[in-house]
Write a structure and sequence with these properties.
Order of helices and strands: HHEHEEHEHHEHEHEHEEEEEEE
Radius of gyration: 20 Å
Number of domains: 2
Largest sheet: 7 strands, mixed
Distance between the termini: 30 Å
C-alpha cells in the first residue's frame, strides 16, 4: 500500500487509497481505534473520505500515535513555550517523509538542484527535533550548491549573499520564518529579480501578530518581489502544501484539505466553505493520516485552500472526546 501513495493519478485513486489506509489504521493504531470507537464509527460505515473520523491534532501531545510496532527512526517535535507540552511525531519509516517532501517540492518547484537555497529559520535551528529543519537541510544537500546553507542571526552575511546571487542572475530560494524575514528587511532593503521568497509562518511571540495580507505586503515591499510564497506544514504531518502567492495553497496528490463545521467538528462542509481545517495526509501511513488541525481556513472547489487563522482553545468543540 505504501508504494501506491506517490502514484496517485486521479481523485478516484485518492479516495480508494484513503479508505484502505483508514481501514489499516483502524486495525493497527490503538489511539486512533479508541477514538473511532468512542464515535461508534466502524469501517463498515465509512464509504468516502468525508465519512472518516479525523483525529484531533492535540493527541500528538498526549499519546504515541503510531500504526505499527517498529521503533521510531526519528521523533519530530513541535516548538513550544517553556513548560508547555509539545507535539511528538514518532516516524517509523523516515524514507516516507523524504519521499513526500522531495516529490512535493519537485512537483511545485522542480529539482532542488535548480536553486541556491538560503534558509533563515533561527527559532527552528535553536532546538532539536524540527521536521522543517530536517526537510530544508535535505533540500540544501540535494541542491549540491556551495552557496546554499542556513543562517542564524548573521543577517549582514545573508543580505550580502542574497544580493550577490540575485544580481548574478542565479535562481535563489530564500525560505524563512516570518519574524526573521521581517528582521532581514528592516536590516536591509532589496530589489530581487531572481529570488523566490517563501515564508513558513510563525511569529511565536517574537513580534506583533500580523494578518497574512499585512505580512505579505511588508515582505513584498522589503524584498522588491511581486509575490510571497508560503509553505504549509507541521510536526504532525509528513506532507506540505505550497502557495505561490495570495495565500492560496495547493497540495500534492496524496494530500487533501477539507473544512469542518466549527460548531459540529464531525460534520464536513462542502467546497467554498470556511471552517476548521482537516487534513488527509497519506504519507502519515505509519501514524495517522486523518488529522483535525487547529487552523481555520477556506477550502475552494479546485482543491486549493487558504489559512485564515487558528482556533482559540475555548473555540474547540468536542474536547471531552480527547481524554480516554
Amino acid at each position: 500500500m505504501q508504494d501506491e501513495i506517490f502514484n496517485i493519478q486521479s481523485e478516484q485513486d485518492f479516495q480508494n487509497l484513503a479508505l484502505r489506509v483508514f481501514n489499516y489504521q483502524f486495525e493497527n493504531n490503538s489511539v486512533y481505534r479508541s477514538f473511532c470507537d468512542l464515535l461508534y464509527k466502524h469501517p463498515s460505515e465509512v464509504h468516502r473520505v468525508e465519512d472518516i473520523p479525523f483525529l484531533p491534532i492535540q493527541f500528538f501531545k498526549s499519546r504515541e500515535v503510531v500504526s505499527n510496532q517498529q521503533k521510531p527512526e526519528i521523533i519530530f517535535s513541535s516548538s513550544g513555550t517553556t513548560g508547555s507540552i509539545t507535539s511528538k511525531h514518532y516516524v517509523t519509516d523516515l524514507q516516507l517523509y523524504v519521499n513526500s517532501f522531495e516529490k512535493a517540492f519537485e512537483l511545485f518547484y522542480g529539482p532542488a538542484s535548480k536553486y541556491n537555497i538560503l534558509a533563515l529559520l533561527p527559532n527552528y535551528l535553536e532546538r532539536e527535533g524540527s521536521s522543517l529543519i530536517y526537510m530544508v537541510n535535505h533540500l540544501i544537500e540535494k541542491s549540491q550548491n556551495p552557496n546554499s546553507g542556513f543562517y542564524l542571526n548573521n543577517l549582514k552575511e545573508l543580505a550580502i549573499k542574497l544580493k550577490e546571487l540575485d544580481q548574478e542572475g542565479k535562481p535563489v530560494l530564500l525560505i524563512g520564518v516570518s519574524f526573521a524575514l521581517l528582521d532581514l528587511i528592516e536590516f536591509e532593503k532589496f530589489d530581487l529579480k531572481n529570488t523566490i521568497v517563501m515564508e513558513t509562518g510563525g511569529m511565536k511571540g517574537r513580534r506583533k501578530e500580523l494578518t497574512r495580507n499585512e505580512l505579505h505586503e511588508a515582505l513584498k515591499s522589503g524584498f522588491g518581489v511581486a509575490n510571497i510564497h508560503s509553505e504549509y506544514g507541521m510536526t504532525e504531518l509528513l506532507s506540505q502544501g505550497y502557495s505561490k502567492g495570495n495565500g492560496i495553497f495547493e497540495t500534492p496528490p496524496w494530500m487533501k484539505v477539507l473544512a469542518r463545521d466549527t460548531e459540529d467538528p464531525f460534520h464536513i462542509l462542502g467546497n467554498s466553505s470556511t471552517g476548521g481545517l482537516n487534513v488527509v495526509d497519506l504519507a502519515n501511513f505509519n501514524s495517522c493520516s486523518f488529522i483535525a488541525t487547529q487552523d481555520l481556513g477556506k477550502v475552494h472547489p479546485n482543491n486549493t485552500f487558504e489559512v485564515l487563522g487558528r482556533f482559540d482553545h475555548s473555540d474547540i468543540r468536542g474536547c471531552n472526546l480527547m481524554v480516554f
